[in-house]
């Protein structure tokens, strides 16, 4: 059974209604409730788990990013989940997804039919094998941050810039080592901080979302595209950065990825020949 799962549900609302524009927490609640129906112990563990969780959940995709959204039966929307754990991936594939396909789901009191479920899976070892090619160790990596992204730092403060140290070292590396069977050394974080550079940005700006109605519980993060330059200084370290970039679409980046934040939609890698 594979380690990693990327699931996108195509949903059709059953009636017209206006709902909050950000439903990341509702999507997380739907997942935990669905897991509880087939594995109550695991649902309780995931609910009580502090720190990094072995899954991400999106808000509804395919609708304009506004404080309120209107659902229409003639327009489908999408919902995305990922799993970072082989045990959770197995449960999703064998029990949760089939139940969703057989029955309608209810998100924020809105019943929706599942019209399609697009599933992609892979293993951590696959990500490492694809990245670890000494002949192509120097590269540029472009990440597109699709939902607001921020990092929690000491003292309860927030970091809202896509610094390599935070993206690769303090987020992706930590999450990889929390759930992958093959661990990466701490030197990868130091390499990200000291050698990986931001080479270009595109449409990078901050965006605020509200987790509740009336603009309360606002969270601010950055969105946009960022190109990182990875030097060919060390085959293992540059290969690890490449593997973490491929991992980003599954793990998300930054804080509150289980609530829809930190979604990475596109990863592009451009290899450069060794000089």
Fold topology:
Blueprint lengths: L3 E10 L3 E4 L3 H15 L1 H9 L6 E3 L10 E4 L5 E7 L2 H17 L2 E3 L2 E13 L1 H8 L6 E12 L1 E2 L5 E2 L4 H16 L7 H8 L2 E14 L7 E13 L4 H17 L12 E9 L3
Antiparallel strand pairs: 1-5, 1-7, 2-4, 3-5, 6-7, 8-12, 8-13, 9-10, 11-12
Helix pairs in contact: 1-2, 1-3, 4-7, 5-6, 5-7, 6-7
Explain what this protein looks like in three dimensions.
This protein is α+β, with helices and mostly antiparallel strands and 275 residues long. It has two domains: 4-122, Alpha-Beta Plaits, CATH 3.30.70.1890; 135-272, Alpha-Beta Plaits (2-Layer Sandwich), CATH 3.30.70. It is 33% helix and 35% strand. The chain has seven helices and 13 strands. The strands form four sheets. A five-stranded antiparallel β-sheet has the order 3-5-1-7-6, sandwiched between helices. Strands 11-12-8-13 form a four-stranded antiparallel β-sheet. α5 packs across α7 (235-251) and α6 (187-194) packs across α7 (235-251). The longest helix has 17 residues, at 86-102. The termini are far apart. The model has no long low-confidence stretch (mean pLDDT 91).
